[in-house]
Amino acid sequence: MVETDWSTPSKSVEGSPVYKRDGKRLGTIDHIMLDRSSGRRYAVLRLATPLGIGERYYPVPWTKLAYDAPLGGYIADIDLGRLQKAPSYSKDSQPKSPDFRQVDDYWGSRR
Questions:
Q1: Single pTM value for the model
Q2: Which fold has domain 10-86?
Q3: Where are the strands (E) in the chain, listed by range?
Q4: Each residue of 12-49: pLDDT tens digit?
Q5: Nearest in space to 60 (alpha carbons), one of 16, 24, 92, 23
Q6: What 3-state DSSP class applies to 11?
Q7: Separation of alpha carbons 44 and 92, rounded Å
Q8: What are the residue boundaries of the structural domains of the chain, listed by start?
Q9: What's 72's DSSP letter?
Q10: Is residue 110 a contact partner of residue 62, using CB atoms and an 8 Å limit?
Q11: Which has the closest alpha carbon to 56: 92, 13, 15, 97?
């Protein structure tokens, strides 16, 4: 895996595929969220569902992702089952101020 330079605009990251370590697609980066108080970044993953019914959005600490240039997307060492149990929200219930502490606690990220 290769780290990208820090000048990548967020718009170019949105829509990027996210793969598991085995190369199978996990989802897509829908958007990026910032915790204003800490400056920490989160990739909000969208899992594909048939016809978009029941789509869920999962904030994941940016540190859980690594860019893979040959693959053209991000690798996440995340199990699908664990992701599906993570803090999430639906398209219609996106929080204005997510509980990043809950997300960090779930993923074991330091604050």
A1: 0.84
A2: SH3 type barrels. (2.30.30)
A3: 17-19, 25-34, 41-46, 56-61, 65-68, 73-76, 89-90
A4: 789 999 999 998 999 999 999 999 888 899 999 998 67
A5: 16
A6: helix
A7: 15
A8: 10-86
A9: T
A10: no
A11: 92
